[in-house]
Amino acid sequence: MCSFHIVVDLGSSSGRVLVMDAAGGSTDEVHRFAHTAQEKNAQLVWDIDTLITEVVRGLGKANEFIGHQPATVGIDTWGVDYALLDEAGDRIGEVVCYRDERTTRTSAQADQALEQKKHFSLTGIQPDPITTARQLFAQGVEDGFDGATALLLLPDYVAYELTGEKGWSQAIVSTSALAAPGAGDWAWEVFDALNIPRHLVGEISPERSVVGPITYEGLNNLTVVRSGSHDTACAVHGLRLESTEAFISCGSWSLFGCVNSTPVLSDEAFSRGVTNEVCTDGKVRLLHNLTGLWIMQQCCRNFADSQRESDIATLAAKAATLDSPGVLIDTTDPIFTTPSDYASLIASKLEEHGYPTPDSPEAIVRVVTESLATTHAHALKNLEEVTGRTFTRLRMIGGGVRNTLLCQLTADYCQIPVVAGPQEGTAFGSALAQIETISDTPQNSTALEYSTVTYLPNTT
């Protein structure tokens, strides 16, 4: 029986390695590193080799921390991105970022090859340009698949690098728009319509199953298990949601949704942009994939480039002292998909509509924060209309819980209480799934606990 569980949590702007002591209920972050997509040979790609190096370094630190005792390791990442392998098991080319413009260039062709509503009916996933399916279609059109024998989604690729075991984990597969609703099997009709070779994938494995021992010297006491594979699946797993609770996993993306026993494939779900991704326990996360703090992160980079205040926590605190500007932006506008000078972009868009231009970083942050809160409220209404359910409480997790203004404004616009926390929701859910994988411990009987803060809606 392992008492330590290590979480490798890889987000699209940073990665970290944490140790959960199940006996003591404590969580310790032992390694953190920043990373970002970068331009290389006219593509936006991830520095995947450095990412793997940092993961191994973090696991070494974790192993020292636990005194080289036996432990499990769970790996989660953002969705949709992938690596291709050749016959020898070596990676082919770069790991291209989902924000690369190749999917925009080939979008019309993809729609002709497989109509969007049909794609949704086959997978339960909105066929957005960022999906793995649309990325692979673009790759086939522009580069081809010469020499490729396997396709691994990102958490499975990291697991492969650590263990030598290839796999296809259910939760991350469900984000790809390549699997049947619920991700029990692949949607082969999609492969054929988009000219994606079938031989690139293998059998889908359920979450809470064992991948294998790590083969790196000095890390042989560590065993990788599937503990959710997708960051939002991990985060939701730890919430123990009630039927009247919705959730927001708020980071670069705002993943707004609820848990359902089965996929929802209605015309209304498609038209309202609702998608079906899989939970760690096999249930379905009905959700909206919304642009989230990415806009604010990009604005802060713009502020830094012009030598202005750029610390997001400082700016959020200053923004909370400002009155509502009475001005909103559409955070779902495709213009916020690829990197740009968002601060200037937001200012110019406001000018176009006759509004005064925000004259300080905190004013722009206030506009973005309030706009995100209204987007959350719209998503809540959509979710209630699609499911026929009324949600009385909203659980908010992820980095966004540090922004108290966003939490309060979300409560105000949604007009239901927002329960914020844990900030480390992804790590908590991953550790919980690891415990369940090796011990069959019921979810509600573990010693793992966390604190939350409740924001009540203002009614004035």
Automatic annotation (TrEMBL):
Region forming the signal peptide:
none
**EC number(s) reported in the record:** 2.7.1.5
Return the Gene3D superfamilies for the record: 3.30.420.40
Could you say which protein family the record assigns here? Belongs to the FGGY kinase family.
Q: Name the source's superkingdom.
A: Bacteria
Taxonomic path: Bacteria, Bacillati, Actinomycetota, Actinomycetes, Mycobacteriales
Q: Which GO terms describe its molecular function?
A: rhamnulokinase activity
Can you give the residue ranges of the Carbohydrate kinase FGGY N-terminal domain?
A: 6-237
* SUPFAM superfamilies membership: Actin-like ATPase domain
Q: Which organism is it from?
A: Corynebacterium felinum
Protein name, UniProt field: Rhamnulokinase
Q: Which residues form the Carbohydrate kinase FGGY C-terminal domain?
A: 247-434
Top-level class of the enzyme under EC nomenclature: transferase
Alphabetized, the UniProt keywords read: ATP-binding, Disulfide bond, Kinase, Nucleotide-binding, Rhamnose metabolism, Transferase
Q: Which CDD domains match?
A: ASKHA_NBD_FGGY_RhaB-like (cd07771)
Q: Which Pfam families match?
A: FGGY_C (PF02782), FGGY_N (PF00370)
